[in-house]
Amino acid sequence: MATHQFLSSFRYSDSLTVLGISVCTAVVCEAISWILIYRTSSYKSLKSSIDKASKKLEIMKTETTKITSKKSKTKKIDRVETSLKETSRDLSLFKFKSGAVVALVLFIVFGLLNSLFEGKVVAKLPFKPIGIVMKMSHRGLQGDDSTDCSMAFLYFLCSISIRTNLQKFLGFSPPRGAAGAGLFPMPDPKTN
């Protein structure tokens, strides 16, 4: 009880609470992802095949620019690109099951935080946000001060930045060849 009184008297206690919960949630989500995905042999083989294909594609493209382009070279490049897209799609589908569990955890935590900080200003923005950003940052708050920041906006910003950086730090970021692929890749301009 004394700790709670000390924290509630601290000027930035609500902001730090949201930040701390966001860090803990990111760690829990990455632990879930590690258990369900990153430690499996299927993930490791898909990731290594994406890495190999992207390196091979890079080498083939640099050789094509050095030498005059031939039809057989472009066909080989197209085959490698197609293989890379298919493997990246498979990797995204493989990650989908973990994504559902992580989404459930984030939904529960967000609901808990929403009930704790409902209608409460947790931070002050150092700027006056533009229209759509203000609707997000001022969601659920009373008053006209547009620099007031709700829990939802702060939690959203913290979650995105912390989880992305944690994935990079732990080496769980997507392989570089899989960056643009995914469940809904961009259409290939060559086939359209």
From TrEMBL:
Q: What does this protein do?
A: Calcium-selective channel required to prevent calcium stores from overfilling.
- Keywords annotated in UniProt: Calcium, Calcium channel, Calcium transport, Coiled coil, Endoplasmic reticulum, Ion channel, Ion transport, Membrane, Transmembrane, Transmembrane helix, Transport
Instruction: Provide the protein's localization.
Output: Endoplasmic reticulum membrane
Which membrane topology describes this protein? Multi-pass membrane protein
GO annotations under biological process?
A: endoplasmic reticulum calcium ion homeostasis
The domain of life is Eukaryota
Q: Species name for this entry?
A: Erythroxylum novogranatense
In its UniProt entry, what is this protein called?
A: Calcium load-activated calcium channel
* Parts of the chain that traverse the membrane: 16-38, 99-117
